Amino acid sequence: MDKVLLVTGGGRGIGAATALLAAQRGYAVAINYSSNSLAADEVVRQIRAGGGRAMAVRADVALEDQVLAMFEQIDAKLGCLNALVNNAGVVDTTQRVDEQSLARWRRMFDINVFGTMLCAREAVRRMSTRHGGSGGAIVNVGSVASLLGAAGQYVDYAAAKGAVDVFTLGLAREVATEGIRVNAVRPGIIDTEIHASGGQPGRAQRLAPQIPLQRPGTAQEIANAIVWLLSEEASYATGSLLDVTGGR
Questions:
Q1: What are the tens digits of pLDDT across the range 66-103?
Q2: How many C-beta atoms lie closer than 10 Å to residue 244's C-beta?
C-alpha cells in the first residue's frame, strides 16, 4: 500500500523538513501552504528531484471549504491518505493578555486549534476502519508553551497549544480500535522563521542560555521525531505527547 502523507504548513521550517524526510522514507507527500506558493513548490521540486512523489496544495486550514477541497485534491492526485502531520500554526507579537484583542484570539484558535481539528476529522474519515479505511497515523505539532504558559509573551498561543494536547489525547483514545494512532510532538525553542513572524527574528538565539542544552533546536530534529511517530517503529505509541525541548 502506498504511503500518502499530508503536511500542513509544509513549505517552510518544521513542515518542510518533515516533508523532505518523509519523502526519503517512501511517502508520497502533499505540501499544504496558505500563501507562499514558491516555498511549497521548492519542497515539491526537491522531493521530485530525489525520485519521490509530491504535490503542493493551497488551503487556509481555518476555512472548512478549503480544507475539504484540499483533501479531495489529494485523493484524486496521490491516493487515499494514511498519514497526517498537523503543522500549520501561527504566533503573534508579544503582548500581555490585557493588551490582546478578541480578533487575535480568534485567529490564533481558528488556525492552531480548529485547523488541526478539521484536518484530523477529514483524515479520520479516510483512515478509519469504521469508514472502510485501512488505518494510519496522525501527528499534531504542539508546543512546550502549553506546559510553560508563555506569560508576558503569547499566553493565547500557549492556550491554543494546550487545546491541541487535549485533542490529541482524546482523539487517540477515540480511534485506537479503528487502526489510527494519534500523537503530538511538543517542540521547545526551534530556530525557524516563526519567530520573525512574531516580530522577534533573533528570539531563538537570544533564549539559548535558558535552555539546558544551551542552543535552540533545528527543524530537522523535530522532523526526526515526527516521522518516527508516523512510522511502524512507533507502533505502540498513541496518545503520546513527545517533548523535544533540549531539556527546557
A1: 999 999 999 999 999 999 999 999 999 999 999 999 99
A2: 17
Tell me whether residue 224 is exposed, middle or buried, using C-beta atoms within 10 angstroms of its C-beta: 0 to 12, 13 to 18, 19 or more: middle
Helices then strands, counting H and E runs in the chain, come out as 10, 7
| CB neighbour class for 86 (10 Å; exposed up to 12, middle 13-18, buried from 19) | buried
Count of domains forming the chain: 1
Comparing C-alpha atoms, which of 53, 54, 3, 7 is closest to residue 32?
Answer: 7
pLDDT, tens digit, 9 for 90 and up, residues 190-245: 987 655 555 566 777 888 888 888 899 999 999 999 999 999 999 999 999 999 99
- Residue 19, all three cell numbers: 516533508
The x, y and z cell numbers of residue 20, run together, are: 523532505
pTM above 0.85, yes or no: yes
Q: Is the pLDDT of residue 29 over 60?
A: yes
Burial of 193 (0-12, 13-18, 19+ CB in 10 A): exposed
Point out the catalytic residue in the list 27, 33, 154, 157.
157
Q: Is 154 a catalytic residue?
A: no
The answer to whether the beta carbons of residues 57 and 25 sit under 8 Å apart is: no
Q: Please give the helix or strand (H or E) that residue 137 lies within, else none.
A: strand 136-141
Determine the pLDDT at residue 248: 87
* Total number of residues shown for the chain: 248
CATH number for the domain that contains residue 234: 3.40.50.720
For residue 166, what are the domain limits? 3-244
What is the Cα–Cα distance from 233 to 89, expressed in whole angstroms?
A: 27
